[in-house]
Amino acid sequence: MSEQIGSRRAVLKKRLAALPGLDLGFLIILLLLLCYGLIMLFSAGYAVALYRRGDAYTYIRPQLLFAALGVAAMYAASLVDYHIWHKLAWPILGVSLVLLVIVLFMPEYNGCKRWIVLPGLGTLQPSEIAKFAVVLVFSHIISLNHDRMGTFGTGVLPFMLILGVVTVLMLLEPHLSGTLLILGIGAVLMFVGGTGLKWFALAGAAGAGAIGAAVVLLPDLVPYAMDRLSSWRDPFADPLGEGHQTIQSLYAIASGGATGLGLGNSRQKYLYVPEPQNDFIFSILCEELGFVGAALVILLFLLLFLRGMSIAVRARDKFGALLVVGFVVQVVLQAVLNIAVVTNTIPNTGISLPFFSSGGTSLLMLLGEMGIVLSVSRQTDAA
Q1: Three-state DSSP class for residue 351
Q2: pTM
Q3: Angle value at C-alpha 83, between 79 and 87, nearest 5 degrees
Q4: What is the DSSP letter of 46?
Q5: Which of 58, 96, 188, 250 is 20 to 30 A from 87 (CA-CA)?
Q6: For every residue of 165-200, which 3-state class applies, written as one string?
Q7: 22-61: pLDDT as tens digits
Q8: 112 vs 35, 127, 173, CA distance in Å?
Q9: Does residue 274 have a cis peptide bond before it, meaning omega lies within 30 degrees of 0?
């Protein structure tokens, strides 16, 4: 029996050794982001965790578990030939749409229905699976029809239908930040895939018209949106209401200075900044580690983007290149939007910071997606 086990181990080691090497630079940047995020999550979240649950490890404990599972999933995905996702793209989109419908019947949390409660297991956020599905399906369609992407029937219509259904379901939650992110990812993939620029111009005109109509109808359609816009323009007009979160976030950022107050020494995380472990973790990072710590976060995301684009350029086929572009752009665009919200550059949309904010589903999906990027990197042309 022991000889058989030893023989199987030897065969497995030979097979793993025969695999092409993955992109080590991308992996190192990714692991640095993950470790940085876990350290900051514990520092930013232990006070509110102790207050809400009586346990300072409430947020970091499950995040560590999901990080371990995510790294395992990332490694497993990096070993699988990424072409298998061609066959799974449509089924995964179907599952994501079903989950987006199911979540509408879940209990509300802070006025939104974004999580499916799994008894004994926690919660599942369908929007994270929807992002994954959109990248897969768009990459699948474009890679099969890349020579006809300039036409409306191939380069616009199928993507418009998919985005339309996903957008409607996510706005019903409502989940505006997730909707904007998915629309952004879809637009980037269409642009890279070869959709004609004239269609983007028409979409821009239609979007401007829709925004104009929304301005007129907004108070009736989405009452809270006008409050968000008002607090963005002047958060100090309502310092104890809609503007509170933004004001406390700006206080935290300003307090950090060049090098910060020191890791663990934030004052604003003691129930001043709402959700310091989630959407506004970047403001606590700025307070504790200052401009230097914030610049390091931005640099790591920039390096992840540049290294990811290098993998995409060297990918053996269009499908692999599009998968890398989609997943890497998703991470970087989400980080840009989060930092923009925290610094009050754009209105508060409730978007998390990848690898930093608390959220098991998000972390697990992100690491799995990065595993697919590493899988593509195994089959790239020489640098």
Answers
A1: coil
A2: 0.88
A3: 120
A4: H
A5: 188
A6: HHHHHHHCCCCHHHHHHHHHHHHHHHHHHCCCHHHH
A7: 889 999 999 999 999 999 999 999 999 998 888 889 999 9
A8: 30, 13, 6
A9: no
